[in-house]
Amino acid sequence: MASTDTGRQGRPALWFLAPFLVLYVLFIVGPAIYGLVMSFFHTSMVSTGLGEFAGLSNYAEALSSADFWSALWHTVWFTILTTPPLIALALLFALLAERTTRGRWFFRLAFFLPYVLPSAVVALIWIWMYTPELGLLSRAVSAIGLGEPNWLGDPDFAMVSLAITTVWWTLGFNFVLYLAGLAEIPRELHEASAIDGAGPWQQIRLVTVPLLSRTTSLVVVLQVIASLKVFDQMYVMTQGGPNFATRSALQYVFDVGFTDFRSGYAAAASTLFFVVVLAVSAVWLVMTRRQEPEL
Amino acid sequence: MRPSAITRRTLLRASLLSGAALTGCSSVRAGLLSTPPDPAVVSYWNLFGGGDGVRMRQMEDAYRAANPHLDLQAVTLAWGNPYYTKLALATVGDLPPDVAAAHLTRMKTLVQGDLLEELLPEDLERHGLTADRFNRRAWDAGLVDGRVYAIPIDTHPFVLFYNTEICDEAGLLAADGTLAPITGPDQFQDALTRARQVTGRYGATHGINSDTASPWRLFQTLYAQLGGEVLAEDGTRVVLDDTKAVQVLDYLRTLTVEKGLMPGSVDYQGAIALFASGAAGFHLNGEWEISTLQTAGLPFSMALVPHVFGDEYAVQADSHTLVLPVRADRDRAGLDRALGFVRSMLDQSLTWAEGGHVPTWQPVATSDRYAALTPQSHYASAADAAVYDPPGWYSGSGSNFEIVMGAAVGAVEAGDLTPTAAVAQLRAKLGELAATPPPV
């Protein structure tokens, strides 16, 4: 009986889950609750305890701070810049890699390889490529006769440069998800559509892409959340500059919390940011639930 | 099915054993069980990397050799904010090191948080650490309400690096082969112009992109020469002098945007690389980059940043200090061990000075051996003209104050902001910080 089975398996399952649950509560849930509590206090990094009760004043300060809003916008702008190419290019490369007959392993590896690198390494490589006058990209762009953009020094262009770096770096993850999705599509469907006279483009548009919709909605949610969490690239490559043009929401939290020692206020700012991420994910989930075909 | 060679039980047993072996490490055990620290241990935290890190390890080794009965446990942590975060948290958590390095401009916030031990005159005297044996300016700048909390071991000013071959060709050297004195805005601009005629690229470089510290240091040097100040009353009041600030920013804009004598868009490493590759005759930076440039092997020397404005010379600087974080279990013997370590570091100031830092310890600073150390001793007088970041909880080396100031100055040099717009931005951002209740 299914019900007695789960009842009997419940306890051992809990034991097997325990190591994870203990760490999860200790290092994720616990600190998150503590952070929420802290956001209502004037907690300081350089003194013990929670400090003076602040009520909602930390939230009021964050909501009325121009710096907080501009940092939040930078994060959203980064998400807008990175999400579409990271999905479209991942799909395109997965389709191409799937079609190659020889050396398929090489293409799979080549697209995934950058993802293996730590963010700091990626950032350092790209800083050198973007270096004005001396860098690889600068020379390449000047060699083909184009005016060289000031990659990381122009406040209007710096975010685009960071987005390009991020696309190169994290494309591999979505690429692998799409490869897995492609492997699940039964070959017969392609054969049947070919017999019905569908060309390769029609096959992709009418068979492959619709059947990948589950993968796509997963990729979009994961990608939006990953992009909203951006911190490393800016922290290493631009320090949020030039003139704060690329300071992300998380770097704002880092600046006020760790540099200014204002943990309470930083907790309030990060709680607000958490609400934004939660709202975005919830909206997306509701939208895809409604659209998703029953498979 | 054949059982695999490693059963679950043996795996568990092995991991338990290795866990036990790990916790056998004394410091972990002390941390977990809060056992009293070993009386023969001196723990020391610092933030010195690169050439400084190498020399600091030499000094630590000399201390170990001279004190074989003591166990010096030195830890080097990443420079900047993470360091002060760790130091503050370790002290709040009552497990701080015996001695820690801290920037003079950052340690005052720690004092306000009651995290640093006050060093009483009678204790300092036992180790010969009296005010008259230190550089006056660094010593006084480190006092908080007249009390001593930190022992300055150096002054590290913003300096002018110059390529001796390029400057020779540009006719900028004096008869003795050092840089001829440059005074006033026109002379400095002229020197950069002549250097550019030789290099064909730039007169000077300094970091701007993703480097807010260098623009701030240059601005502060010129602004302080005009007698300008930014903050007053421990950072609660902004006293920026708009006229003086605009004058300095106008000048920097002329050098970068208008005349192209300095690149307005280059990062810290790129600025060094341009100078090291001979694309610029001058480089403005902290003296600590001496190690990098010596390794690069180009013909260079160092001088004071020129006296560009005003009547009285001033130059931006900070000092590394050694502090004793508050710990409940420190007795007199522990205090003496810590101060003995501080004294040992001061006695080795000559080693430290090789890295470019100007010693504050007068027995070394006034010695012939230091005078013979060139180019380091060329700019030793910077220690007496040093201008430190203004006191304030959000100010100091690597602080948000420096980021706010440097971002605006850098934006002017890149041509993204006019000097007037930059001053307006500074007023808005500094005003917000000044109005925020301090976290200490």
From TrEMBL, chain B:
Keywords: Signal. InterPro entries: Bact_solute-bd_prot1 (IPR050490), SBP (IPR006059), TAT_signal (IPR006311). Pfam families: SBP_bac_1. The keyword Signal applies. It comes from the Bacteria. Residues 1-30 form the signal peptide. This is Carbohydrate ABC transporter substrate-binding protein (CUT1 family). It comes from Actinophytocola xinjiangensis.
